[in-house]
Backbone:
């Protein structure tokens, strides 16, 4: 598992953490039943507060990505395929949208953007 | 409690070179001095060493940390008394060994019972001095106790000298004869005398220790 | 685990008035300038000083009434006070064995070795960093539930500070129920370690927040004087005006980032927060 926390980002740390763990789960890096690192272990490794990690873990559980066994830790839940796909789709949309806004600020017209995408799709 | 005693013992060991030097000096001096000198000298060094462990506790605000260790403030006082009484007694025992060794080497004749009686009363006296100095050390500071110690030994010395001088003048001018009456040491049996002296020492030490415990309990660190 | 209610203590020219609550398993930081009252607060928690008024409860008891057994559950590193400097680590090991039945000798020796502390050298010949590490290791030597660390990183260089913080992190990982109260005047030390932070100034708590909220929600808003007039000041908690601009501290940076896309909104560090709360215009 790879986690990178950006302390200068405006996105709260717990959200960054949550998103990255979600990506790991969706991408298959973490499989059902895999244990997440303990709260204090991850906090120590990333040099962030344990409460921040706990908040991220709680949200992950709320969203159905993990289950917490009291006194034992958090485990990756049986993936809810439609939910996971939906999340993945959302992620892709986000990346597209940032690419589009970059393109626009570079002065590209909508037609030109479409063209680029067409070319990319043909190449692949 | 055990930890405190180990700590004090370690402080003592830390001064072992110092100690050895003083004891060597005492051995050398005892060949030319009265045989009871070595007993009072080494016992006094013992007393000073015991008191000095408190100075180590005071240094660098050490009391604050000591009181975070698993002891109650009163335990500190109790441990200090236990350690000091054991320490003074140990030094006194060492001094006895040296005293009799020197007497044996010098092949001097001496009355065993008188010497022992004097030695034992010396121990009782040092325990009484300890009972006065320890609370001062615990209550105030090691600097204060140095002053008080000088005053006490000064008074004892001055008293002895003044007494001798007064007696000298009185016997010279008025022909008064001292010690013509039976010496009190001879009328009272030695056993009673020793018990009496130690009873006084124990009373002094108990009052002193209770006071020190109170001081520690009231204190902020 | 620790509760202070209206704890008051007065010294010449200094008044302390503190209320705080620290649940079990929490890492709590006290931050403030030298002389702000951090050490006094910690000493009250340890029962070293008697409060003038107010209630203190630590591990379910009044600290002044702690028994020796109660004290074994607490590990302490004070900033200016430790064992006598004439001792060596070997001496200290024997002394600690005399104090704590569950003194973990092998672990203590291993950690001292890992930190390259010499066993037979007197502490007075140690460097500042070595003394600091030893103090923290002594506090951790008997599996205490609660660690109280007063300025464990003061006077250390960046590498030594990180070593000390890593020691604390490792101790926390061993048992998730362990709690730590740590004071510092260096905020970055606390940012990456503490769950929540109390800022103390002049004997009072001026701010208490989860670190997460401090770093995630607090922010710096920079605007011109004209913009400042029209700004919604609902979440502004401190401002500083200078010749060219107004710098504001907000407790909801998202609000300003979303509603005022033209103004500059930055992340705030604890230092910025302190400066703007203390040094800002009233």
Residues:
């Amino acid at each position: 598992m790879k986690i990178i926390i950006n302390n200068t980002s405006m996105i709260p740390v717990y959200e960054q953490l949550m998103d990255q763990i979600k990506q790991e789960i969706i991408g298959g890096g973490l499989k059902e039943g895999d244990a997440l690192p303990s709260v204090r272990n991850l906090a120590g490794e990333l040099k962030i507060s344990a409460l921040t990690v706990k908040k991220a873990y709680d949200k992950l559980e709320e969203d159905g990505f993990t289950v917490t066994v009291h006194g034992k830790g958090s485990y990756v839940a049986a993936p809810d395929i439609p939910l996971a796909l939906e999340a993945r789709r959302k992620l892709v949309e986000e990346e597209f949208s940032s690419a589009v806004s970059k393109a626009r600020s570079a002065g590209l017209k909508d037609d030109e953007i479409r063209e680029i995408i067409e070319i990319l799709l043909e190449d692949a | 409690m055990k930890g405190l005693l180990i700590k004090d013992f370690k402080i003592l060991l830390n001064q072992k070179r110092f100690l050895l030097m003083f004891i060597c000096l005492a051995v050398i001096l005892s060949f030319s001095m009265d045989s009871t000198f070595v007993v009072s000298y080494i016992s006094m060094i013992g007393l000073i060493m015991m008191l000095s462990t408190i100075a180590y506790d005071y240094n660098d605000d050490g009391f604050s940390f000591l009181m975070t260790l698993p002891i109650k403030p009163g335990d500190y006082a109790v441990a200090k008394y236990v350690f000091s009484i054991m320490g003074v007694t140990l030094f006194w025992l060492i001094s006895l060994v040296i005293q009799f060794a020197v007497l044996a080497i010098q092949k001097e004749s001496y009355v065993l019972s008188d010497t022992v009686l004097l030695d034992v009363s010396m121990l009782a006296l040092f325990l009484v001095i300890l009972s006065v100095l320890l609370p001062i050390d615990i209550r105030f500071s090691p600097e204060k106790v140095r002053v008080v110690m000088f005053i006490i030994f000064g008074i004892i010395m001055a008293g002895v000298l003044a007494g001798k001088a007064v007696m000298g003048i009185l016997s010279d001018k008025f022909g008064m004869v001292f010690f013509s009456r039976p010496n009190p040491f001879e009328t009272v049996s030695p056993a009673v005398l020793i018990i009496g002296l130690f009873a006084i020492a124990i009373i002094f030490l108990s009052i002193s220790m209770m006071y020190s415990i109170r001081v520690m309990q009231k204190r902020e660190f | 685990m620790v509760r202070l209610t209206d704890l008051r203590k007065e010294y010449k020219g200094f008044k302390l008035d503190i209320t705080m609550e620290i649940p079990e398993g929490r890492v709590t930081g006290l931050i403030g300038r030298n002389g702000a009252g951090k050490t006094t607060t910690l000493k009250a928690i340890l029962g070293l000083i008697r409060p003038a008024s107010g209630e203190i409860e630590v591990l379910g008891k009044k600290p002044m009434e702690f028994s020796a057994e109660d004290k074994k559950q607490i590990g302490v590193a004070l900033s200016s006070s430790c064992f006598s400097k004439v001792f060596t680590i070997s001496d200290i090991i024997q002394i600690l064995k005399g104090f704590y039945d569950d003194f973990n000798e092998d672990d203590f020796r291993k950690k001292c070795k890992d930190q390259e502390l010499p066993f037979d050298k007197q502490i007075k010949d140690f460097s500042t960093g070595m003394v600091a590490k030893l103090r923290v290791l002594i506090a951790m030597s008997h599996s205490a539930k609660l660690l109280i660390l007063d300025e464990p990183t003061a006077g250390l260089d960046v590498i030594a500070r990180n070593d000390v913080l890593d020691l604390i992190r490792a101790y926390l990982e061993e048992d998730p129920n362990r709690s730590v109260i740590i004071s510092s005047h260096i905020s970055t030390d606390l940012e990456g370690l503490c769950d929540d932070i109390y800022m103390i100034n002049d004997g009072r708590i001026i701010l208490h927040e989860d670190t997460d909220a401090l770093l995630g929600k607090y922010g710096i808003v920079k605007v011109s004087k004209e913009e400042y007039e029209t700004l919604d000041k609902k979440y502004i908690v401190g401002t500083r005006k200078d010749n060219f601009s107004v710098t504001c501290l907000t407790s909801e940076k998202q609000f300003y980032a979303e509603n005022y896309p033209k103004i500059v909104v930055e992340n705030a560090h604890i230092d910025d927060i302190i400066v703007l709360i203390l040094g800002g215009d009233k």
The two ends of chain C are 36 Å apart (CA to CA). Residues 246 and 260 of chain C are 15 Å apart (CA to CA). The first helix of chain C runs from residue 38 to 45. Chain C touches chain A through 23 residues (CB under 8 Å).
